[in-house]
Structures are given as C-alpha cells and as structure tokens.
Amino acid sequence: MLMLGPLHDNVRKHLEVLHRDPEQLLSGDVDTLHLIAVLYSQEWQRPDFIHVVHSMAPTLPHLSSLLRAFFSGAGKTWEHFTSEFAPGGLIDEASLEEKELAWMLPTNDINEGALGSFCVMMRRQPQLSLSVQNAQAMYFRNETQAFMKQYFVGPEDLQFLRSMAWESTGEDQKREQEIIEHSHQRVAEKEATRKKRQQKRQEKDLWLEALEHVLDETKVPGLKGEALKDMLDKFKAVGAPDLGNVNRRSKVGAIREALIVAIEKYNNGTWRIAGEDEGEGDESSDLGDDEPSALEPISDWEETDTED
C-alpha cells in the first residue's frame, strides 16, 4: 500500500486531462477510444454502456459540461484523499526499508476470520474447550497431518504425542478454576465495598442526629466547609422544604441561601422539624398510676369505714 504513490499521482493527472478535454470520451471510435481515454489504455469494463452513451450524445447538449464538472470535483477529492502520498511527503521520501517496517494489513480480516471461525465452531460443538479449538485451528493451518506422515514413523512417536495431550488436559480446568476464583473475588470486593459504604452512611446518620440545628439565619454565613454541608444534610434529613435542587457539590452561596430560606420558613411556622412536637399532650399523662386524677371520682369503698 505504501508503494502506491505513483499510481495515485497518475490517476490525478489522468483526471486533469479528462477535465480539460472531456470531448475525447464522446468522440472517435468506441472500439479504440479506450487507448486514449482509459488509464493505462485498459479495456472498457462496460463497452456496451459506452456505445449507448455515444449514440445518445447528440440529444444531450450539456453532457460535456457535466463531465467537465465531474472530473474537476473528482480530481480535487482524489488529491485530498491521497495527500499523504504527495511528492515530497513522508511516505514519498521514506526508504524501501522504512516502508517495509511500517507495513501493516489494511484491514483486520485475519483476526475477524479467526473469531468468526471460533464462533461457528462453538455453535456446532459447544462442548469444545478453548485449547481444543485452538489445537484444531493450528492443526489445519500448519498442515500437521502432512508433518505427521513424514516424521511420525514409529509407535513411540504417537505414544509421545498422547502423553503430551494427557499432560495438557488439566489446563482447561485450571483456567476455569481461575475464572471462578476471580469471579468470587470480584463478588467479595463488591460486598466489602457495599458494607463499607453502608457503615459510612450509618456513621453519617449518627453524626447528623447528634448535630444541633442552626435556626438563626444570621448564623448561616458563619458556617463554612464541611460544617455548612453537614447542616444542609441535617436540614434535608428532617424534611426541610425547597432543598431538592441543592446538594453538597453546589456552590457555597446557593447552599447558604437555601438554608436561610428554610430557616425563615421554619421560624414563621411553614414547616416543623419531624418529631419536634412529640411528648406534648395532656398533663394528666404525667401523673403516676398510684395518684388518681382530680377529675376522677373517689370510689365508695374509700369513703366507708372498715368493719372491725
């Protein structure tokens, strides 16, 4: 591919010739026209098509202009796509040895072919292991059968081959065991991470539970750093309104403004802290069971004297 610089340049020059004089494609003997109109004077791929175009040319007055515009655009596009092969460029000035060192396959057909063969084989014989599939592929690719016919002349050769195959039978089980152990390790790591995250969440909940609310909006500007963010979490935990769009990653100004609004709404009674009013009720509930309420009537047996 790196040797195609001269070819690309010849195509560009040929397009320039056809752009300057498109009439050479529309006049002359069709049977010999390819000698001057086709690059390297090759035969037409569709000579019947050229005959039809020549027969219709008198009825197509703009055909020559269309061809000139086409070859003009094609020449510019060709030059753009082959700019790396331009004379004086890196590829053009590279030595033959450098081009051979830089050569690579233009596509990934070899790998795609091997992968496709593997998929087909596994569909047909799903019981095959990866090592067996690789062995079969190498057997056919390396022409192992011909090698065996030539060099495996005695029974000891086949015995050696069987012993080698027997020694390699545990590789697949070993690989499967490694995959299983790796999967178990991943599960254990995820579980440890989950427990660690849960522990941090519990510690954070305990910390927020012990944290006292700041219910004076004038003190909010004095909160900075983690103290400000913790207070935001504290207010969210107790159900403060209008804090859904603010989080710990929000700007400091936005957090302070949201806290001030929440405190103002709390102070004017718009919302209350969850559980704040618990325990407030009838004072009689604080009386002991042994002390009757003043509203309860005294039973008759307490008014009568006991008999001797």
Question: Would you write up a description of this structure?
Answer:
The protein is mostly helical. Among the domains are: 5-102, no CATH class; 211-267, no CATH class. Helix content is 59%, strand content 0%. It contains 13 helices and no strands. The protein has helices at residues 5-20, 30-37, 47-56, 63-81, 90-93, 96-102, 109-124, 130-141, 144-151, 155-167, 170-210, 225-237, 252-267. The longest helix is centred in the middle third of the chain and has 41 residues, at 170-210. The radius of gyration is 45 Å and the shape is flat. The model is unreliable at 278-308 (pLDDT under 50).
Number of DSSP strands? 0
Radius of gyration: 45 Å
Order of helices and strands: HHHHHHHHHHHHH
The N- and C-terminal alpha carbons lie at a distance of: 130 Å
Number of helices: 13
Beta-strand proportion? under 5%
Mean pLDDT: 82
Q: Given the helix and strand composition, which structural class is it? A: mainly alpha
Low-confidence runs of at least 5 consecutive residues: 278-308
Shape: flat
Please estimate the helix content.
55-70%
The biggest beta sheet reads: none
Biased composition (Basic and acidic residues): 181-192
Biased composition (Acidic residues): 276-308
Region (Disordered): 181-202, 270-308
Please specify the SSE layout and strand pairing.
Blueprint lengths: L4 H16 L9 H8 L9 H10 L6 H19 L8 H4 L2 H7 L6 H16 L5 H12 L2 H8 L3 H13 L2 H41 L14 H13 L14 H16 L41
Quick overview of this protein structure:
With about 300 residues, this protein is mainly alpha-helical.
